[in-house]
Design a protein that fits this description.
Blueprint (H helix, E strand, L loop, with lengths): L6 E5 L3 H15 L1 H24 L4 H29 L5 E6 L2 E5 L4 E5 L3 E6 L3 E6 L7 E5 L8 H12 L4
Antiparallel strand pairs: 1-2, 2-3, 3-4, 5-6, 6-7
Helix pairs in contact: 1-3, 2-3
């Protein structure tokens, strides 16, 4: 393959890679943000009503409210940790991004994805996140920028992604 149309990434996946992908997915879908907002608003309302109704803080209500806030805040981190347990044991990932698509190899598996799998991508400060075409965006491809070991390769990677899939 031509070096100008291919980019190699070598990295070990980390849970912050998955967390970045989940955050992008949430921003693109917006339903998760809406649901979390409604859920927290209902809990805040319930807590305020019970506090105002009694004229004092109810310990159980307050503890439940803080627990719900912790769950809503921590759920994406729990998901990322779970994904890390699934993929982390495979060790080093070697991803090749080319005109044909993305090929990701470990010592245990090889995954080949054509560009038609993706609806688009979003660039963050440290990642390129590719989003699957299905309505629920059940698959995320996360390419950490730390995996690129040549300075000009990031620009080539961005150009390949722009050529084959739109920014979302």
């Amino acid at each position: 393959m031509d070096d100008q149309t291919t980019v190699q990434l070598v990295y070990r996946p980390r849970s912050d890679d998955t967390l970045a992908g989940l955050r992008v997915r949430g921003r693109v879908k917006r339903t998760g943000l809406l649901l979390r907002g409604v859920f927290l608003t209902l809990w805040v309302g319930q807590w305020l009503l019970s506090t105002v109704g009694r004229g004092s803080f109810d310990v159980i209500s307050t503890v439940l409210f803080l627990f719900v806030v912790l769950i809503v805040w921590g759920y994406p981190r729990l998901q990322a940790a779970s994904v890390q347990r699934l993929v982390g044991w495979q060790g080093e990932y070697r991803a090749t991004v080319s005109q044909a698509g993305i090929t990701c190899q470990t010592d245990h598996s090889t995954l080949v994805q054509k560009w038609t799998v993706f609806q688009g991508y979003r660039e963050t400060a440290n990642h390129f996140v590719l989003l699957s075409r299905d309505p629920n965006i059940m698959y995320l491809g996360v390419l950490p920028k730390r995996g690129v070991h040549e300075a000009e390769a990031l620009d080539r990677l961005r150009a390949i992604l722009d050529l084959h899939t739109p920014r979302v």
